[in-house]
Structures are given as structure tokens and as C-alpha cells.
Amino acid sequence: MKKIAIIGLGYVGLPLAVEFGKKYQVKGFDIKQERIKQLKNGKDITLECSSQELAEATYLTYTTHIDDIKDAQIYIITVPTPIDSYNKPDLKPLFSASAYVGAVLKKGDIVIYESTVYPGCTEDDCVPILEKESGLVFNRDFFCGYSPERINPGDKNHRLSTIKKVVSGSNPEIADEINVLYAQIITAGTYKAESIKVAEAAKVIENAQRDINIAFVNELSLIFDKMGIDTISVLEAAGSKWNFLPFKPGLVGGHCIGVDPYYLTYKAESLGYHSQVILAGRHINDSMPQIVASKAIKLMIKKGHRIDTAKVAILGVTFKENCPDIRNSKVFNIINELEEFGCTVSLFDPWALAQEVHDEYQKELSDFASFNVNDYECIILAVAHAQFKELDLSCRGKTVLYDIKAMLPMSQSDARL
């Protein structure tokens, strides 16, 4: 039985390492020493894997030393692929991981990529790095595959093993071998794509499709706001039809939906095609934090509050509910906008890690237990964490309550998105 090395132990890599670690000899590799220390102590701060699940992976070990993974025959790369400040793909982590693997690559080995990329990235950009570092020849001495991750952070119903897995290989025999490999851990089954490029393209359009649909309902929310109509009420009425898609307006952050479309449009532009629909959707969704902040300011003015001395409470800073993931959270764009108006903004989130918030965004989390509705001129319900539903926000006097997640009945808030 072949040995497996998982490169990158974040939201994608760790669940994969755990599942394979129940059946195969697996080395989980990460450059973050603190992350490895936590995992060795049975703790996953992403909350994707419980201590019990970590313990069940009896063949899984962890390391920060590249030499410890040189005896593997299958390398699976699961590092982040973010965008830079210009919305261009930032492939430095992917290229670095490819160089790490290339340094230990041997004849007959297989390198599988799970990180989201544009079509062609694996074979055109990553393979040359593997060849350079290893001195081996692609599809003669070593082989590659692509199997896009479909992890949904915080979702305890749709887990790695219960989501159908797309697989592909650099030749038909390798595609079959990779298919058999993943079939050992994916109970929902696999789908073998005809090529690596097809699998890469399938991944980026999955999230681009969701992004465009959310952009549509976000635009509807702007239109209906001018008409004095509650958007959620409209969507509920339209949802009575059997084939109406149940998307809701909101902030589009995280490491997938707000990022992946830019990988596709970047590749398209390199080929001379300028996206119209995809980038239009991105523009709408990226503008929502400024629209939310502007609406909050208007609501406070209507209630007679002075803006440059106003205290605002933000409830929730993660990119989605009941999850500690703060990557690319658009809530911080709202915070920055309000601070530019002179507001003093306090952040409350029972899920987010204070140190990560400080390191990533240079913001401080307040103690959730200290939250008092009457201390603020405005409260923005930004993330639908379960704990917020237990708060009593009814006796708030002149305090503005802006419920952008529509957590509460319409009558209990001053406005909903």
C-alpha cells in the first residue's frame, strides 16, 4: 500500500489527512510549527475535525520537516490559493509547495493538487517547478492529478466523505489509480473528469455560479430598498415556485466564492477575453460592505445620532455563521468604512479567535459576555451565529438595529439587507 503525504493542513488538508489516515500511512506536512504542535496535542482550531476524529486517524503523523515525507509515493497539495490586493491570483503558496514536493519527488510518484486554480495551472505552471526541482520528466518519471476540494467550512452535514469528489489524472491509467484512491474514503462516490483542465475548470465555475446568483439577489436588494419593499419577503413569495433558486442577499467573503471567479477571469484575460457577467457580479458583491456601512450611517442620522461620536457594535466578523474562519471576511470592510466616518466600532464574535483577528486585520475583539445593547447607537447583525439568536435586542431605545442577515422578524429591526 502506497504512503501518502498531505502538504498543507488547513481547512482542506486536515480533513483529507484524517480520512486517509484511517486506512493509509499518512504524513501531514505544514510549515507552521504551532499548527503541528496543536494537532499533535489533538486540537484543531479550525473546528473541522474533533479530537476524537483526530485520534481515529491512527496511521496519521504530523511534521514540519520536508525530509519526513520523502518516502511517500503520493503527494497531495492542499495549500491556499488567495488573491492579491489587485484581485489577481496569488500562487506563491502553491509554487512554494510544488518546490517542496519537487525536492523529494522520485520515479513513479504521483502529485495530486486540490488547491483551486485556473484551468491549465497544474500542467503549465506547477509541473515545470516539479520537473526543475526533481530533475524528472513529467508523465514519464512522475505523474499528476487534480481533484478539487469541496470543503464547506463549518458545515457538519456536508463533510469530505459525503460530497462527491471530482478526480482526474495526467493520463488514463493515473486517472484510474487516483479514482480508486479517493473512492476508499469518499462514500458519496467520485466523478472522473476527462482531463486535469476539465477538473480545474469545473472547480472555478462551481463558485463563480454561486457568486453570480448572490450578486443578482444583492442587486435586487438595492432596487427593492429604493422601492421600500423588504427583499426577504419578496424572495419568500417568489420561492413558492418549485424551481426558484433560494439565494439570499449578503456579504460574499471566504476563501472560495469571493476568490475563485477571479482565477477564471484572470485566465480568460490572458487569452484576450474580458469577462462581463462574472466581473459584473464580482463588482456588485465587492461593493456590498460600503453599501451596508452607508445604510447604517443613514439609519443613525434618521434617529438623531451624531456620527463622528457614534458607538457601533458589530455582531459577527467571520465570513459565515457558526464557523471560526475569518479569511477574506467582508465584515472588516464594513468596519473600516464606519471608522472612516469617525465611528467607534466594537467587535463581538463568540467563534472567531482574537489572535487571528489581530494578526490578520489589526482589529481587537471585545468580550462577547460584555455586550450590552444600550451601550451603542447602532448594532449591525453581520453574521448569523446561533449565539446571536439568544440575545434580547428588543429593549434598545433609540439604538439602530440593522439586521443584514435577516435573523430576526422584520418588525424587530430597523432595516434588513
Report what the structure shows.
It is a single chain. By secondary structure, the protein is α/β, with parallel strands linked by helices. 37% of the residues lie in helices and 12% in strands. It is built from 12 helices and 14 strands. The strands form 3 sheets. It has a 6-stranded parallel β-sheet with strand order 3-2-1-4-5-6, sandwiched between helices. α5 links the parallel β5 and β6. α7 runs parallel beside α10. The longest helix has 32 residues. It is globular and about 70 Å long. The termini are far apart.
- Averaged pLDDT, please? 95
Q: Specify the oligomeric state.
A: single chain
Query: How many runs of DSSP E, i.e. beta strands?
Result: 14
Cα Rg: 23 Å
Order of helices and strands: EHEHHEEHEHEEHEHHHHEHEHEEEE
Q: Kindly estimate the percentage of residues that lie in beta strands according to DSSP.
A: 5-15%
Molecular shape: globular
Class of secondary structure makeup: alpha/beta
Can you give the helix content as a percent range? Answer: 25-40%
- The largest sheet has its strands arranged as 3-2-1-4-5-6
> Can you tell me the residue ranges where pLDDT is under 50 for at least 5 consecutive residues?
none
Give me the number of helical elements. Answer: 12
Determine the N-to-C terminus distance: 53 Å
- Characterize the largest beta sheet: strand count, sense, and whether it forms a barrel: 6 strands, parallel
